[in-house]
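G., the chain you wanted modeled:
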Amino acid sequence: MDLILWRHAEAVDGYPDHERRLTIKGMQQANSMATFLSSRLPSHSRILVSPALRAQQTACTLTKKFTTESALDTHTSPQSVLSASGWPASNVTTLLVGHQPWLGQVAALLMTGSADYWSFKKGAIWWFSHREREDEHSTILRLVISPEHL
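Predicted structure as tokens:
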């Protein structure tokens, strides 16, 4: 299974939190990453997106064919996120569009087994793969990239 974590791009400050929109810079970040992802994602990928407006707008730069997933809301646990994604058992590449702190916690959990707080830049992706060989299970970090490095 491949699991791609995509943090929403830069959004305006304010309340209510779920209605925060992307800034002009945020739209540019999201468009850059969407262009990068569009040629790399398998056509049968599953895309799960937080219900928050800024995550929805980020995902829409890539496609309008995604599933809004309440388990990816702004305040959730890394375990809930992984459960919603089907990690590691799913055989479908899954892209999750969401928020800090759970994105960083999921990345830490996958890499170290502990859901520590790791920084995750706005608009960035972390791409993981899970491989099984005989009795060995491994998590592979394939890519970490932010929009300004594209």
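Strands lie at 2-7, 46-49, 67-68, 94-98, 125-133, 136-145.

Shout if anything looks off.
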